Predict the 3D structure of the following.
Amino acid sequence: MFSIIFTWVIVAWGAIACIYMLRCAWTRFPKRDVDADDVIPFLYPVDISLAESILDPATEFECRWRLEPRRFREAQRKRMRLYLELTRRMAHNARVLVEYADAEKNSRDPRRVNVAAAVQEKAIGVRLYSLLTGIKLRFWLLLRADVLNSKPVLAHLRTTGDIDGLETYGALKTAAAAAFNKLPPDAIDSLTRNL
Amino acid sequence: MNLLLRYVPLGLLALLLLVLIRRRAYRVCPCFFVYTAYGVAAGVARLMVRLSILLNARDYAVTYWVTEGGYDLLGILVMYEVLRTVLGSLTRDWRARLVFPAVLCGALGLSLARAHAIPVHFSSHLASEIMIGEIAVRFVQVFVFAGLVTLVPVLGFKWRQYPFGVAMGFGLYATIALLTTTAFSDFGTRFTFLWSVVSLVAYSLAVLIWIWFFSVPQKEQTPSSELSAPSPGDLKQYKDALRRMR
């Protein structure tokens, strides 16, 4: 019985995947032109210095040393929620840039295609990091890992799935700067503020 | 069923083999290339045995099941190649290497559980085992395909690339094959004709998908050396942009 139910579940999953791919193939035509106006206003600002401070082991050690255990757990949960929000923003920005890169890949200029490939590669890394970190953080927050388990160390979140999150996001920013370097200075300013 | 219609997939596979040779796909997907070449050879061998007046139905059955076993082994290898290509470009984490063995073990377990619940009835013991293996391979193909498709919206993967095309063809065929096999075993032998026709159409569709994917050259995924040598004007703009970002 169990195996039959599982078989039907897998068949349904496969059928949904087929329908999704059909939709992907269908929506390729007509191709939509995505330009800077479809990117810059849609980006959420990510405070990298804040992320650095959350992941800094020294800051965490100081909090642990300075606060009493209950207060430290509360502070740690706040820091977890804050970092979850930052990773969400990183993932969102990466998604916006992937869409831009997808459109750029149809360009006839090989340099633009290469720059778009670099943006897309880094964006996928950022999204994978955000996904894995998000799962870990939600798991910690949901199960109150700080109470049940030994205290979760946020500094360990810097590298997840062999991906250094902040370094990869930095590389994505660099790739995006290369992709948008033809924009007027005010647009570049908006991009730098929002990314 | 008409013998000509039965061998439509063989013609399409031969066309696919030509496309793969033209695109030099043996460099990108060597296992898939071997699978296609094997598919053509196996199809020709089955046709020869069927048309030969010296050989009987038993010889055809032996040829059929032996070649079917080969299809299963190569199907597994192709799925391994697809997963290794996609996950290898994504992460170097050692746990990524455990994904395929886990999928394989899960599929094999599920196929054995299914065979226990609905026993496969064949005169030959070897044929029954090949059938169980075949269902396990279909499970692996659906797992890998549906898993990769799930990564498209989650990670923003570009789906128009060769490994996705290979997984999509196998995924479509395996989904339909599992669906018809389950319906066949659940609802009885009145599905025999439908089962054979649907399988044939699904496999032909899968081969058409592969031809479609391999008919265009794959775009470069990694940035080339051109990026490292921009013009002085570009370099200045690029530096300004980076300076503003920091």
Summary: The helical segments of chain A are 2-26, 48-55, 57-66, 69-104, 110-142, 145-148, 165-179, 185-194. The mean pLDDT of chain A is 82. DSSP finds eight helices and two strands in chain A. The longest strand of chain A covers residues 159-160.
